[in-house]
Amino acid sequence: MEEKKRFFCGNGKKKFSVIAIIGMVIGGLALAVLFAFLFGWVVMLLWNWLMPDIFGLTEITYWQGWGLVLLSHILIKGGWGSSSGSDKKKKDCGSEEDSDNPWYVIKTEIKKEIQKEMNKVSCQTDNSTEPENKEEI
Fold first, then answer.
1. Which one of 17, 63, 80, 91 is at 20 to 30 Å from 49 when CA atoms are compared?
2. Which pTM does this prediction carry?
3. Taking residues 7-11, what's their average pLDDT?
4. Same-domain check for residues 24 and 60
5. Contact in structure between 98 and 89 (CB atoms under 8 Å)
6. 40 burial class (0-12, 13-18, 19+ CB within 10 angstroms)?
7. What is the predicted pLDDT for the residue at 86?
8. Would you say residue 69 lies in a domain?
9. Residues 96-105: pLDDT tens digits?
10. What span, in angstroms and rounded, lies between the C-alpha atoms of 136 and 133?
């Protein structure tokens, strides 16, 4: 038997059936709606538990909690959707080394700082033996 592989990055030539695509879209939309309603309920519970006692505010309804979720999404994300996904070029899967990606830049800077600190600590605590190749540390 031949093992079937699915490619999600656009690199492969795997074709999904129309029924599978429709199922994925409907399932994704159902999960999005479920999470939206769940977040509204959680916001309502947290607000009604904390805000009246701490700040003397009134309790809110479920729909007001859901409205707060929507409002916070608009304020934090800057609108309804994210424009970053449509404007970017398609990249290979696992291609993390991207100088435009702020997380990659932060990650490399943190790695450099950690390596510097480790070098300082290892030089202070163990002066008797030096590593043969200092670049490995």
1. 80
2. 0.45
3. 52
4. yes
5. no
6. buried
7. 47
8. yes
9. 556 677 777 7
10. 6
pLDDT digits (tens, 9 = 90+) for 33-58: 898 889 899 999 999 999 999 999 99
The answer to whether residue 6 sits within a structural domain is no
**Structure token digits, residue 56:** 């003397």
- Determine, yes or no, domain membership for 90: no
Same domain, 18 and 72: yes
What is the token pair recorded at 67?
A: 């409205």
Q: Does the structure show a pLDDT above 80 at 25? A: yes
Residues 69, 43 within the same domain: yes
Site of tokens 């702020």:
102
**How large a percentage of the chain has pLDDT more than 70?**
63
**pLDDT top residue among 81 and 90:** 81
Q: Which amino acid is at 72?
A: S
Query: Do residues 32 and 72 share a domain?
Result: yes
Q: Which domain holds residue 48?
A: 14-81
Sequence-separated (6 or more) residues with CB below 8 Å from residue 67: 40
